[in-house]
Amino acid sequence: MIKSAVRGVVVTALTTTLALLPTLAQAEETGQDDNERLRLTGVTWLDTTPESIEVGDSWATRLQLYTEKTKKTDKKQPGKKQLQYVGDGGSECGAVRVHKNHVTTQCERTLRLKQGTLTLSDMITYNPKAGVTAKTGIIGGTGKYLSAYGEGSITLKGRYVHIDLLVEE
Question: How far is CA 95 from the centre of its chain?
């Protein structure tokens, strides 16, 4: 038979452990080691956006993706910045609202990188003839990014798309 004093210690230890488990799991998930900052520049090579957008219209864009790298040429001088090809991507968008010169679009975007893919989703209201910066959400991925989530910003400006993401895993 277990003595009541020992039984009390065991019950207290188990209760404390069970109470702390969610806190410990949450602290582990938010560690900085699991975050990755991705800054990409996309150059559009295919764009099927209609000239005059109406509600219900849909279109696709295809991108070549680059990241900025600094190439050191001399120890005394700062390095030269260059764009390095890192993959490709695409988006499928649909117009959900058109009002005067602004359109609201729902877009799903896929970024195919060497270590896996990332899937983004966003709803943006903008003037198609002007640039815009808006929020985008990471909704999934494959490979290295299999359990990825997070958010970032996307800037649409002419045939360039600038993507700045904080990928959490």
Answer: 22
